[in-house]
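Hi R.,

Here's the chain you asked about this morning:
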Amino acid sequence: MDQAVLVHGKPTLELQKDLTNLRWLNKKFGAVSLLLRFLRKWESDRPPNSSTLRILDLATGEADLPREVVAWCRKHRIEVAIDAVDTNAATLAVAMDRSRDFPEITFHEGDIRTWGTGTWDIVLCSLALHHFSQEDAVLVLRNAFNRSTSRLLVADLERNFMGVISIWLLTALLLRDPMTVHDARLSIRRSFSFRELGELAKEAGWKGFHQARFPVSRQAIWMEKTPHSTPS
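And the predicted structure, written out as tokens:
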């Protein structure tokens, strides 16, 4: 494991601080509101007295978004079970520690390009796709599709000039921890353009999907599957 994130089998303080910063960014810059927007819409379409809502969260990070989902479901008396997957053991250690009061979340270490054999009602992947090459991003999207019985939501940064400038200023003036500065600036440069993300979804076999921009320099693709939308 990379010494920058794991020392003597434990996550470093630098990693923990970086994940805390990412949670703040998700809360303040739209990731949480975007996710809950779709959850509210999709849950309103479910029949009354439905069974437990099963969700798969790919590249969960420190699991701040699954915890937001659980909190929302508790508030609305919805039974939910979330499987949260990440490839990084150190990050998962932080996630599990911070989610001790959320038994609805089960954690798994695995490669999100191939992880899983079952299916879930909803499959989520937030702010992870830019970590992959185009070829691997297609594998992630195809796997997400195959793991979902009903709904998919993949949200990420959108590479554009204003996004690059905004991230640079944010990390120069406010979030100045070295790991956060490095990761944030690299992430916006490696993220896909709006057109590129749409093309990746098509290459992965998504049919009838939707795509839109969201504040701040974010974009998402999503779909509600039908019996005819079945890529290999």
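Residues 13-28 form the longest helix (16 residues).

Let me know if you need anything else.
M.
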